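Field notebook, page 801. I keep forgetting to write these up properly, so this time I am using the form the group agreed on. The chain and the ligand, Z57, are recorded exactly as supplied. Prediction of the bound pose follows.
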Amino acid sequence: MFSNKDSFKKSFLKRLESMCGKGFEESTRRDQYFTLGNMVREYISSKWIDTNELYRAENKKQVYYLSIEFLLGRLLCQNLLNLGIKEVVEEGLAELNIQLNEIEECESDPALGNGGLGRLAACFLDSLATLNLPGHGYGLRYKHGLFDQKIVDGYQVELPEQWLRHGNVWEVRKPDQAVEVSFWGRIESSYEGNSLIFKHVGEQKVLAVPYDMPVVGYQVDTVNTLRLWNAEPASFGPNQDVLSYKRDTEAITDFLYPDDTHDEGKILRLKQQYFLVSSSLQSIIQSFKKENSNIRELHHYVAIHINDTHPALAIPELMRILVDIEGLTWNEAWHVTTNTVSYTNHTILAEALEKWPIYLFKPLLPRIYMIIEEINERFCAELWDRYPGEWQRIEHMAIIAHGLVKMAHLAIVGSNSINGVAKIHSDILKNREMKSFYDVYPEKFNNKTNGITHRRWLLKANPELTNLIKETIGEDWVKQPEKLIDLKRHVYHPSVKEQFAQVKRKRKEILAKKIAEKNGILVDIDSIFDVQVKRLHAYKRQLLNVLHIMYLYNRIKEDPNYVIQPRTFIFGAKASPTYYYAKKVIKLIHSLADKVNNDPRVSQVIKVVFMENYRVSLAEDIFPAADVSEQISTASKEASGTGNMKFMMNGALTVGTLDGANIEIMEEIGKDNIFTFGLTAQEVLKYEENGRYRSMEYYHHDLRIRQVINQLTNGFFSEDEGEFESIADSLLVQNDQYFVLRDFASYIDIQEKVGIAYQNREKWLEQALINVSHSGFFSSDRTISQYADGIWNIEPLGVKM
Ligand code: Z57
């Protein structure tokens, strides 16, 4: 079917007729998409079955990656690429006068995630499959993924996302493997002989139906599984309000919570978490039991990884299954559980740490609550032995305290590994945030610096740069991304530099065309494309970027002799619908864009563009076109960042704080090839401890700061002088929690250096290529190998080409 372009064309046309009931001439792009999608899924299915068969036969240890989010992005072209049939398909379609790109536009962009955490999970799946590692994802099949963002008069409006509207060619519903999940009710205890038995009665049952999606490795035969659970009514009882029961159950997988690094604490979210965990564990244990009889050996065959604390109920749920159903003693079950589960922490922001009020938790999950109480009591008793009399320390470390269940504490106590996502983040966990736990369990703590899949973020997103690299150093790096370093020998070759410049230019043209279409703004291809794309959050400091642009505007207006390298400032960001401040910053970016872009003189040299509805598919057009990558979080607050790596891999230079993985990027490429500025993490944490920061002093002493802050409230932007008062207040009245004013001068300085550096074209191109050549370290293949060896103890399976 895909062996050559003619046989492809033939089967494609035949399949189009049988699937859509029309001839090629009458077929729409969407007909063609569904036809091709189904052909590819069918092509995958035999490898998928073989992989599952092999895993069963070999009966080696497998990892299950539990995540409340998988931000997959479109799959058609990635699957074609990984299967090695993209060219055949492109050639065949070309003879029918169809561009693969046009077909791809018909595919919805599955956004079952918010940002970094969900996208990391998707990159990890790609690397697991490519490395032939037996690893599968477990998540939720949200009917509505992350909302679609519309901008109306400069304000964000949210529309429900509808990725399933036209069906999903990649999923396979498996009703025969459905399981039941219980909520509410109460627990009755009784003796059976002399052991205490717990029975859950009066519970409400929800059916969890799995939808499996294939995860295709890159040019290997491995096809792993992403299993997404759908909530459905289990069975209708006689005295039941059928409609409300149906509504309540289906609500569980209706939508993704749109808060990134923020805990809303809603009961529906807790239901989602337990629904994910309980159905996944039942399914994992079922497949374990097909090949094994001794549940006491579970941890030799199964590793369960929890992506942040959202699936931390895996710990008490596994205890429940082992104790209540399998009949293990508490100590036996605890041994198996702690040796099975491992946990990644993704943030130290206090507002992201999950704490569930007992009054919500206990009625919804009565047995799970009992088990957590038992875990807590035993843990506190151990602490008491270790720290006799230190009740304050114990209260601080307890899993349940002050009416709250602390999920991070549960995850640490109940797992064998706790990792941070960049060196500095892991160090902060060990030495500060989780120091008291590190003192008790030093051997559990480790670092696994994040990575991204170069197959999506370079091969798929930037075929032009991919070809240039292949022409320059061959193709080994594709399978061994660390070999991108071979490019370093060539970064001074004039022709390599020139070709890179052409690739960048072409990608800037493609993006400029999109901007013209969508925003109606004409941008200068020769200007610096300076990009900040990520969720909108105070700690990521989009506001610092905005204040710098306001400062530039003022300088250009005031000083007719001021010369500046032209720049296009590009933003993309979604704000959580309930995050008032973040939405104000979006409005501010739009007001600033209006001012700048409509000023006849200023708009000659700078432009401001906000790209609506930032998402994976848009990101694939943005990263390849960027010259400058804005990674300007308050030091210590961004655990890692992964966009920073995507920019680097596409030859953008970073303007960044010494935060997250920016530090390791700097260590890789050298201090001279990155523009760092601002407070260090140590300095920030010290200010936070001693409370000596006074943002008002910076307002009084720096005229540039005073001017831009005054402009927020003096009608400079709009008739409504109150519009941006809350932003001004955050900086002055609320003492600028994220040190925007403290870092302002340093940021202005470094940005001036960026402008000057860009004028040395040759050197800039060299630095861009140095970034690309060192980006191999940040492939998620490296990250996943480290998880496989250092945490999961799993090995690649003998899948032959
Ligand atoms: C999320 O996207 C991240 C952390 C969280 O606790 C939640 Br909830 C969502 C992000 C971090 O902010 C990034 O710094 C990090 O790169 C990413 O997770 C992946 O580790």
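OBSERVATIONS:
- The chain has three domains: 1-58+75-108, 59-74+109-416, 524-778.
- Residues 59-74+109-416 form a domain with the Rossmann fold fold (CATH 3.40.50.2000).
FOLLOW-UP: compare against the apo run.
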